[in-house]
Amino acid sequence: MIVAVAGDRLPVVRSRRAPYGRRIVIPLQDNVPTRHVPIVTWSLILVNAVVFVIELSLPGPVLEHAIYHLGLVPARFTDPAWGAQVGLTANSFWPFLTSMFLHGGWLHIIFNMWALWIFGDNVEDRMGHGRYLVFYLLCGIVAAVTMTVVTPSTTVPTIGASGAIAGILGAYFIFYPTAEVIVLLPIFIFPLFFSVPAVVYIGFWFFMQFLTGTLSLMSSSEAAGGIAWWAHVGGFIAGALLCKPFAMRLRHGRHVYPDEYGTVGPWYRK
């Protein structure tokens, strides 16, 4: 999500946090096996972690300067006069890329990387390493562009990976709609574990992003919780639309085991 974040030595910015909705139904794992080692997914998690450690090591003024110059500030591109006045030039488009590698606190990066860990490996498995990396970055850029188009006057930096992760969810929604996602729902101090089909879990998440995003356009960002919901919407739609062209052709179907049908039928042959 893109949320106003304070603390953890970061300035008050908007940050793309994990794409779960506002309250917390936490995905724990899915039931889709992978055929290949998800090298790119692991590498993306490592790069984000290293960048976050660097953020924590910076003095406050230096970190704030970096957030404003490497994070996405929509008004920097839609109002060049304002940007020039505050020292943000409109002729650098690197923030559309660099903003997705910055995070606004420990929970922020943990939830984002956890979502990438659960859903990214299967999407990478379907696309292949190189295509998956291009797909991830492209979804993040589309999410940032959506944010800029829908909220052009925003002067608060936005950072975080969940625009790109929303694209991963969009691809997962298309590739694995019948997969089961095991989730945790905290009820007071009692954890409730259950599984839901991916099409239900991700579909409901997207519906809430779209609905809340529409409502947020009628109010201030503070009233909407400071979350730029439309970055998630843009990333998700990009992922759902682009995933098929990026997918590899499957030469052989996955082996089907007899117990997947509950009982071994007479049609099964070894």
Biggest pleated sheet: 3 strands, mixed
| Overall geometry | globular
Nearest-angstrom radius of gyration?
A: 20 Å
Number of strands: 6
N-to-C terminal Cα separation, in Å? Answer: 47 Å
Q: What's the CATH architecture name of the domain at 2-19 and 33-171 and 220-247?
A: Up-down Bundle
Helical run tally: 10
CATH topology of the domain at 2-19 and 33-171 and 220-247: Rhomboid-like fold
CATH class of the domain at 2-19 and 33-171 and 220-247: Mainly Alpha
CATH superfamily of the domain at 2-19 and 33-171 and 220-247: Rhomboid-like
Order of helices and strands: EEEHHHHHHHEHEEHH
Calculate the mean pLDDT score and round it: 83
Helix content: 40-55%
The structure class reads: alpha+beta
Strand order of the largest sheet: 1-2-4
Task: Describe the structure in your own words.
With 270 residues, the chain is an alpha+beta fold. It has a domain at 2-19 and 33-171 and 220-247: Rhomboid-like fold (Up-down Bundle). The protein contains ten helices and six strands, in the order βββαααααααβαββαα. Strands 1-2-4 form a three-stranded mixed sheet. It is globular and about 55 Å long. The N and C termini lie far apart (47 Å). The model is unreliable at 1-12, 17-22 and 259-270 (pLDDT under 50).
Features:
single chain, alpha+beta, Rhomboid-like fold, three-stranded antiparallel beta sheet, 10 helices, 14% strand, disordered N terminus, disordered C terminus
